[in-house]
Amino acid sequence: MVEPARAHRLMQLATDLLAVCVPPARVRAGVLAAAAVALAMLAPAPPALAQAAAPAARYFEVANAAAVLYDAPSERARKLFIVVRGTPLEQVAVINKWVKVRDLSGDVLWIERGDLGPAQHVVAGTLAALRRTPQANGELIAQVERGVLLEVVDAGAPAGWLHVRHRDGSIGYVAAAETWGR
Questions:
Q1: Disulfide: which of 79, 86, 127, 143 matches 121 by Cβ 3.0-4.6 Å?
Q2: What mean pLDDT is predicted for residues 36-57?
Q3: Contacts of 49 (CB under 8 A, 6+ apart)
C-alpha cells in the first residue's frame, strides 16, 4: 500500500497534467477518471490475483561434469564459478543459448543452456533430517548439512516430502521445506 502523502502527490500530479492537457469543460470528468485510475493503481491486488501472478519456479541442474557460471550472457564475460554435475539452479530468464539462473545462495548468474538438464537433485537448504519414513517423527537416519547434494530417487513421495539418496548411499525422506532446487 502507498502512504497517504505519496498518494496525494500522485493525485495532484494527475490533476495538474489534466489541467494542462484537457479543455476546461472536460477537466472535472478528466479529474474523476484520473482519480479512479490512480486509486486502482494504488490498491493492493486481490490475494487470488497476487498468488496467480507469481509463476512457479523452474529448476534445472548442471548436466555436464562441470560448468562455468558467468556474470553476463557471453563467453567473453567474466567467469565467476565452476559448478559440478547435479547442482540445482533456478531459471530466471533465457536469452538465446544463455540461461540466467539463481543458485542456493541467491546469486544471479549466467550459464550456457547446453550445460543444463532436468532437475534430479536438490540441496539441503538448512540442517535437514533424513528420515526412514515421510513423517516428522520418523526414525532419523542422518542429519544433512546445508549445501549437501541429494539425489531425488522418485517422485512418488507424499506431499511435502522428497524421497532422496545421500552421497553415502543412505536412502530416506527429507522434508521438502528443508531443501532447495525443486
A1: 86
A2: 49
A3: none
